[in-house]
Design brief:
413 residues; mainly alpha; Growth Hormone, Chain: A; 0% strand; globular
């Protein structure tokens, strides 16, 4: 994978991969922890059972809205100040926010802290993927970004075990503490050489509005965002609210949301490794994405049919959804490869957070279909799924193949 680099270069690249992977590990732990402790934390704050879904959606939307804001903030900073400044600045913010989450005394405080945590969580993945993609040889960068995602996504599995064995407040304290420990690994990590060269010669960097002032560039940006929507539809709706779906399916024993998230993310970790390998074998990002989106549609069919049989089958379907949805790193890598160095971090950081932020309109549409539209929980989710997957297939259909693309170029803005 790195055979054409000198020993010193290999050590630097491996350290970058390690820091990005562990940073994403803590990121995912903190990001998904809320889904795992949603019910016990809200009950602990005095929310009545009939309000759990309503307040849970409010807090989820605050977190995802924060990620949308943070994506723009960190993305612009990543192109103006460097990938490393964002990588560690985001870790500091989300670690502090999650430590404070453990002290929340009411839903209002909880909501503000989830907003701040969302802003912090927004920066790590995009900066990490951008840095890894720029320091690795182009023929092997898919391996590096897949390792980052596969290691990172296991944070959800660890989060499940921590949440299941500790009080919800202690689970937040542990997440914040992990982030603080991670900062010690900053020593020895180098900035991207591609960014350093562009920073010295191209003063206009991190122009977020440049993504909207040119039609071709905007459509390219929109297409990248749309191909990521299915993953957060599956995680943000079907898995996060698994108890409500289990009840609608008539299961005798309702699913545990934390376990459903952990099972799903176990599949996601395996899927992220597999999607990277497949894109390397095919020498095509687009073919690998098409395969995984098709697999997601099959997984969706299993969830709404086999998931009704028993709790065991329900969890098996969550695992399948995760495996089929394991193209998150591939998706962010494609976003980074589509755009020049002067706005690459802006794209790679905003794109995943635009997708995460899209959970807000998705939950609103889901609620509108379920209540205003008169549909039940399963039918409302299927109607939403049809829109999400239709948009993703349109996005994929017009994207340029970027497997062999040289990243040492700028976007003329």
């Amino acid at each position: 994978m790195l055979s054409d680099l000198s020993p010193a270069q290999r050590r630097q690249v491996l350290l970058v991969i390690l820091v990005a992977a562990l940073g994403y590990f803590v990121d995912i732990y903190d990001l998904l922890l809320f889904s795992m402790v949603r019910s016990p934390s809200l009950i602990g704050l005095g929310v009545p059972p009939e309000k759990l879904m309503e307040k849970g959606m409010l807090l989820l939307n605050m977190q995802m809205g924060g990620m949308l804001l943070g994506g723009v903030l960190w993305g612009v900073l990543g192109d103006k100040k460097g990938r490393l400044s964002v990588l560690f600045g985001s870790i500091i913010l989300y670690s502090a926010a999650n430590l404070l989450n453990g002290f929340a005394s009411n839903v209002s405080e909880y909501a503000v802290l989830r907003l701040l945590a969302g802003v912090g969580l927004a920066g790590e993945l995009g900066a990490g993927i951008t840095l890894v993609a720029e320091v690795m040889p182009k023929r092997s960068r898919g391996w590096g970004t897949s390792i980052v995602a596969a290691v990172g996504i296991l944070g959800a599995v660890v989060g499940y075990f921590v949440a299941g064995r500790t009080d919800w407040r202690h689970a937040y304290f542990i997440g914040g503490g992990l982030g603080v420990i991670l900062l010690a690994l900053r020593v020895g990590v180098v900035e991207s050489g591609i960014f350093t060269r562009v920073a010295a010669t191209h003063p206009k960097r991190g122009d977020f509005l440049a993504l909207f002032n040119d039609r071709e560039r905007f459509v390219r940006y929109l297409r990248v965002i749309l191909i990521g929507l299915p993953l957060w539809y599956l995680v943000g709706i079907l898995v996060t609210f698994s108890p409500e779906f289990g009840k609608a399916f008539g299961l005798a024993e309702l699913p545990n949301a934390g376990k459903a998230v952990a099972v799903c993310y176990t599949g996601l970790a395996a899927g992220d490794l597999a999607s990277g390998m497949i894109s390397q074998w095919f020498k095509s990002r687009r073919k690998a994405l098409a395969l995984f989106i098709g697999a997601q549609i099959l997984g969706l069919a299993c969830y709404f049919t086999l998931g009704r049989i028993s709790l065991t089958w329900f969890y098996a379907c969550c695992l399948l959804l995760g495996l089929a949805g394991g193209y998150w790193a591939l998706f962010v890598t494609i976003g980074a490869e589509q755009f020049g160095t002067n706005i690459r971090a802006t794209v790679a950081t905003t794109v995943p957070n635009m997708v995460r932020g899209a959970v807000v309109p998705m939950t609103l549409l889901f609620t509108a279909f379920r209540t205003g539209g008169g549909l039940g929980v399963p039918a409302a989710a299927l109607a939403l799924g049809a829109l999400v997957f239709g948009a993703a297939l349109w996005g994929l259909s017009g994207l340029e193949e970027s497997f062999h693309k040289d990243l040492d170029f700028i976007e003329h803005t």
